[in-house]
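Lab notebook, design round three. We kept the backbone fixed and only want residue identities now. Task for the bench partner: fill in a sequence for the structure below.
Input structure tokens:
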């Protein structure tokens, strides 16, 4: 979701059950902690401290095989020979006589420990299934949800789904949730993030999001989207900082409503673990008082992902993303690091402004027994305008991570990443790849 309002409120189940598997939001739940710069570890709500065990639980049924996820129905395989219709060995080497397969359930309880939200647990679940058993072209659809509760009274739940149907001609996405999120606000601009002084803030509210895309040719999808967010924002401790008071002046009770347009070019071979192909995504959301929004502003985002297979078990992934916000936007709608995985190693919301870019490269290695390793590095920056970007404010990022396949068939990974940034280091845990 391009609105950072909903992201700061509750990207909880959206990112894990829906977006974490197949859409654009990232992370478990996002929000900055109270640590300042220096050698201390910073752990955001999206970037949790891992527990000493891997809490992945799988309830498994079976799904139809969909190895190639090309958007073009012309790639659909021709009818196979009688020999090919014979029972094939499964991933364990056993022959299966089941031709029709139903679905697969993934459940992942994720314990968290954060200096911001305290200790708690995120419980998420998703059901991966074919929208039509006769459709061998569309990627698997997914529905799911999740809930969060922590010791500092941050809590929430969300439900969502993403459907692929008519031989991947159409894609529909819907999500909604409710929650309370407590975090810290540092201010706007790279200087505020570098200074590291924050004010505790609480957001309470609900969000709803829907999107419908149609393939128009050349693996390009185009379609409208709508989002609605209602938030109550306040500080838990009074502050004398004039910049913070200005940011909070008109957002105590705010409603945001927007119509948007998305253009997506999709050539990835998988929505869960791409090994080749790419994705180009352009989104514009237009918030207006005529739609019931308190603020009128525009939010734009662009991303480009590319995946190259180095060998059977090695993938090189590249990502570039940019963001821009114009108009009378509240602080939680600005471009920010830490909300998605565009630049790991930074707590959510510490660096935010009207313009942002980030680029990163990630090496992925599949190991035996469901495990995998990654190593990544990148750089990014926030600025009030394009002309204000400069090398002095660049934010570096580097790290490594461990993967465990919750679903071997669709290669849905449970991830644990350690990243180092300009101000410290972070741990992150989630379901699905960072991008």
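Proposed sequence:
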């Amino acid at each position: 979701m391009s609105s950072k309002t909903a992201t700061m409120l509750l990207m909880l189940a959206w990112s894990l059950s829906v977006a974490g598997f197949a859409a654009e939001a990232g992370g478990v739940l996002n929000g900055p902690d109270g640590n300042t710069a220096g050698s201390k570890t910073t752990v955001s709500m999206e970037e949790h401290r891992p527990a000493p065990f891997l809490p992945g639980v799988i309830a498994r049924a079976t799904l139809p095989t969909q190895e190639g996820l090309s958007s073009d129905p012309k790639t659909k395989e021709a009818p196979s020979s009688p020999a090919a219709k014979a029972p094939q060995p499964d991933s364990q080497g056993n022959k299966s006589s089941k031709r029709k397969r139903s679905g697969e359930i993934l459940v992942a309880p994720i314990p968290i420990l954060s200096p911001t939200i305290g200790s708690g647990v995120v419980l998420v679940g998703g059901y991966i299934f074919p929208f039509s058993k006769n459709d061998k072209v569309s990627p698997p659809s997914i529905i799911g949800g999740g809930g969060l509760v922590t010791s500092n009274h941050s809590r929430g739940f969300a439900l969502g789904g993403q459907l692929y149907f008519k031989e991947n001609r159409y894609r529909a996405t819907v999500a909604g949730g409710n929650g309370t999120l407590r975090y810290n606000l540092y201010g706007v601009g790279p200087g505020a993030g570098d200074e590291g002084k924050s004010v505790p803030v609480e957001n309470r509210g609900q969000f709803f999001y829907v999107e419908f895309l149609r393939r128009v040719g050349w693996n390009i999808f185009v379609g409208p989207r709508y989002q609605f967010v209602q938030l109550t924002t306040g500080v838990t401790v009074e502050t004398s900082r004039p910049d913070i008071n200005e940011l909070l002046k008109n957002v105590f009770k705010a409603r945001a409503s927007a119509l948007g347009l998305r253009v997506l070019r999709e050539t990835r071979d998988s929505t869960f673990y791409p090994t080749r192909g790419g994705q180009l995504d352009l989104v514009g959301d237009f918030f207006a008082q005529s739609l019931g929004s308190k603020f009128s502003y525009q939010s734009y985002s662009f991303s480009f992902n590319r995946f190259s297979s180095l060998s059977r078990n090695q993938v090189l992934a590249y990502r570039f993303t940019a963001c821009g916000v114009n108009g009378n936007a509240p602080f939680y709608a600005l471009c920010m690091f830490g909300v998605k995985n565009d630049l790991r190693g930074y707590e959510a919301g510490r660096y935010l402004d009207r313009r942002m870019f980030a680029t990163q490269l990630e090496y992925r290695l599949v190991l035996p027994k469901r495990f995998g390793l990654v190593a990544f590095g990148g750089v990014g920056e926030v600025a009030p305008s394009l002309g204000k970007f400069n090398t002095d404010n660049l934010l570096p990022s580097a790290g490594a991570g461990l993967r465990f396949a919750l679903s071997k068939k669709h290669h849905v990974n449970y991830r644990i990443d350690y990243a180092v940034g300009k101000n410290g280091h972070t741990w992150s845990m989630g379901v699905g790849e960072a991008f």
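Keep this in mind before ordering anything: The chain has one domain: 4-67+102-431.
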